[in-house]
Design brief:
alpha+beta, 2 domains, 12 helices, about 30% helix, Immunoglobulin-like, about 30% strand, 6-stranded mixed β-sheet, homodimer, about 475 residues, Spore Coat Polysaccharide Biosynthesis Protein SpsA, Chain A
Chain lengths: ~475, ~475
């Protein structure tokens, strides 16, 4: 820069001006929130002590390529969120403009009246306002005498009148019509009078058809029991007999990837046969995909129903708290639950995740024995639609549990209660395929590596800590 | 009311006052949008000519009970949407208050600075503002000299100072902390100074972990082919051979509910066996639940890959438009697509749905041969995660197609293109189980009744029109 070729005093003065200009723009044009947001997304995270640094588990020769591919995928994913509706906007003080700040929602391609647009300015000989949009057009009724309109049917509408009342009459009848079909996006409108300018959001949304479940009249129409089995028919049959002691007609869905499949007979049992050893989460996703009731109860194939396994009590908790997606119970007295502390981190590096065992949040209103958490044990009642929306990742073939709750973080409202329990069949018992089962169940070292690599890419993580 | 005991003149005057007061509140306190919204949700819909009135298809003896159960379920579903964030709010003119109107998002239970809070009032001897919230508490830094703070750490914060500058310094450091864990809800803050009051939203959201797919390096890691088969092994094998002509290593997932299952051999084929005749949509949901790639290509078991079946071209459209969830092609030259016109209707009666064939919206940027629509033919490439979030309803055992797109309305951004096609195997050909297949395929009359009953409840509809 030419300015730096002069003497030191002039350089200092020039630098001073540059700094002052920067501050001016920061203060008057760059809202503090935007600035904070800008700063936070560029901040690299330092992983908590005891974390696994996931980049270290990538195959050395593919490390760069994976980082790049992940960055590209992350960018594409971000384009699916509509930025206009998350942009920080402030209402400026002492502005004569009145406008909607929240709640102005329109259907795509449909003309909708903009609510609450008005000008409350002091005495003028003439009043002129402008309204600008990007993803739609503005139309107004045929102007009465004494008001001039420019840009009717376009993206920029200018209205002028000598009478404030006439101007406001017109402003009360401006409609917005989005011009491109979309199911969920946003536009930003700019409303301007003299030196005053206001920006407000317009939500463009295709209304959903409701998707409701008929709860019917009894427990069998409220809940389906789901399980996955592999090489443990002995345990599975014990589980089924224990279910039938208390629930003779409830439907049981079994996802089965055993090597030598055995047909389970009996009414209200649906058995699905998968390619052998296809995997744990593939089987879970399959079982849930077949549920036709509002809720399903997940059980492992070596659990045991007891007199305390009262599904109705879990249904009661869910029905009393319609925002809840899942409620976990206890297995053989063990009420396992955890929270997931997640920092988003910087775009290129990824975030930090800390699974904290025995961490929970507030209790449910009316249910002091139930608390919110981010993950629970494998005995839970859940909303079928909510769990299907998250899904059990079929890439997880062997040991997996928290991964489901990680994928569901922010999507599932999860609670843990201690007043409903299920038993667990004894662990040490010998059975036909025990050795073969354990061979699959105890993962090889490369499975742990695979798991870290999966979290690295799929969940855009820098590090994980299991606590 | 005592006022009506007086003479007619006084009564008229009193009535006049009451009417004027009502108008005052309507104009200055009841926003026009709110009023319009209030009116629209109580308006009963009249069904378009040619619609099926769904209530007529309910079993007579259960009609009242079903209406009531549906209303209850609908109410519970509504509680899952957070009303604070959709409430219509206006920014009042000529207010000395400055505050955020959009974009103030906080993590649950986490202290976050409220951006942009300030007072720009004229000369006063003293300035006093109040800030109220419901789902959290407000805290501020230790006040400097000359400012009085009440309610630090509570839901109502009152700040008072003789100096506007000192007051604003404090306002710039007020933090909000939500007090109840939630994954997505909202609070409304009220900011008040003298007779001025402003209401602004606070979004409380648990950030999601990203869930990305590794696209890998070739078509086999981008796409899985999925299909459902029933009693048509002859056609299925012809389809598979045609796939292998062009894509030798692409994975094919087959959901099979045939009566006498036959194992399909070959590399990269996964076959899942269901209870016999379990059903069409159950099979579709199963197949999709097993996909591990970002995209899947749906084909029917009697389709035929040709040289024009270029999956890469469909992937290209999807990758260029990351907001897109699905892109349909043509089957034997038939480019079927439709739009779904949906009116929400009144709470007790339900909405109206009109499936309009050959209706589409705008074209995709850069792809003039592709248009947005609400539903397409059964040959499409789709995002696995988006389709899993909607799901194929396993209650639909026989004929079904539009139902998936109805459940997905507002959730799936769907396009139809004409530059990628697939063939259809000849219809008239004889095969082993043809009669038995047709018996299932051509639905009994009670299936149509069942279908209407399902739409009545599940989709909260009053009427459907198929055009």
């Amino acid at each position: 820069m030419a300015v730096f070729n002069r003497g030191p005093l002039q350089t200092a003065a020039a630098l001073c001006v540059i700094i002052l200009l920067t501050f001016y723009f920061m203060i008057f044009h760059n809202f503090p929130g935007e600035l904070t947001k800008m700063l936070s997304t560029t901040q690299k995270l330092s992983c908590p002590h005891g974390s696994e640094l996931l980049k270290d588990h990538l195959p050395k020769d593919q490390s760069e390529e994976l980082l790049e591919r992940r960055a590209k995928e992350f960018q594409k994913q971000k384009k699916r969120a509509t930025s206009e509706l998350s942009r920080l906007l402030l209402a400026m003080p002492n502005s004569p403009l009145q406008y909607p700040i929240q709640g102005f929602k329109v259907r795509p391609l449909t003309s909708t009246l903009i609510p609450g647009l008005a000008l409350h300015a002091g005495q003028r000989s003439s009043y002129k306002v402008a309204l600008d949009v990007s993803k739609g057009v503005l139309t107004t009724e045929i102007p009465a005498e004494g008001v001039k309109v420019q840009g009717d049917g376009k993206t920029r509408l200018i209205v002028e009148s000598r009478s404030l009342e006439t101007l406001n009459d017109l402003l009360a009848n401006v409609t917005y019509t989005s011009t491109v079909y979309h199911i969920h996006t946003g536009d930003l409108a700019t409303f301007q009078f003299e030196e005053h300018e206001a920006m407000f959001p317009i939500t463009i949304k295709q209304p959903h058809l409701p998707v409701l479940y008929d709860m019917g009249t009894d427990i069998n129409s409220h809940v389906t029991i789901t399980t996955k089995t592999f090489l443990r028919y002995q345990q599975l049959k014990v589980l089924l007999r224990s279910i039938r002691r208390f629930y003779s007609n409830i439907k049981v869905i079994i996802a089965d990837d055993s090597f030598e499949p055995e047909h389970i007979t009996g009414a209200h049992v649906e058995q699905y046969f998968m390619p052998p050893a296809q995997g744990w989460f593939a089987g879970r996703n399959l079982a849930v995909s077949q549920v036709t009731t509002k809720y399903f109860l997940w059980v492992d194939d070596d659990f045991l129903f007891t007199v305390k396994t009262k599904i109705e009590k879990l249904v009661e908790v869910m029905e009393a708290n319609p925002e809840l997606d899942m409620v976990g119970g206890t297995v053989d007295g063990n009420q396992f639950y955890f929270s997931l502390l997640y920092e988003e981190g910087e775009e290129k590096e990824g975030g930090c995740l800390y699974r904290k065992s025995k961490e929970r949040f507030n209790s449910l209103p009316g249910y002091p024995q139930c608390f919110l958490a981010n993950g629970v044990v494998n005995f839970f009642l859940a909303r079928t639609d909510a769990v299907q929306k998250v899904g059990f990742d079929p890439k997880l073939k062997r040991v997996a549990h928290s991964e489901f709750f990680m994928d569901g973080l922010g999507s599932l409202l999860v609670a843990t209660c201690n007043h409903v329990s299920i038993g667990h069949q004894p662990h040490g018992v010998n059975y036909k395929d025990k050795a073969r089962y354990n061979n699959f169940r105890n993962p090889a070292e490369n499975y742990t590596e695979f798991s870290f690599q999966l979290h690295f890419f799929k969940n855009h993580l820098k590090c994980i800590k299991y606590g």
